[in-house]
Design goal:
Blueprint lengths: L5 E7 L3 H4 L14 H13 L4 E6 L33 E5 L20 H7 L2 E8 L2 H14 L3 E9 L1
The protein binds zinc ion.
Amino acid sequence: MYNYFMKALIVVDYQYDFADPKGSLYWPEGETLKDGIEKKVKEYRENNLPVVYTMDWHPENHCSFDIWPPHCVQNTRGAEILLDLNQADYIVKKGVEVDWDSYSGFNRQSDAQPLEDWLKEHNVDEVEVCGLVKQYCVDATYQDALKHGFKATIIEELVK
Ligand SMILES: [Zn+2]
């Protein structure tokens, strides 16, 4: 039983299609965040604080491809997270079902454990959010963190 609360880092969608200039939904300057995010992840790990990655993980015919160019298709290079997967304590896959999209890492996906439950189980009461893209998935994740009762901050220098 924990008798203290922890802060967790949530790195949103730092994936090839968003962060690499050759990605299908490349967000300008996304690649410039890599060193800073890696440094932040290391800081959390060194302090034994949990690190969560979120990722888009879309089927080929995903509903969001009506609005956006196809991106982060399951088992393709575009979906690859450009960070060391071994540094993540939990990885949330979003937009896994054909007819269901989610910008937020908190939106329930198929049978996976919801992020809010995972965080509560690990005695997290506060999150810091960074990654891509600020006005879509980063913001949606931040807003949902607040809705679920977590203290939340966006790390402004680590979002685009
Ligand atoms: Zn998507």
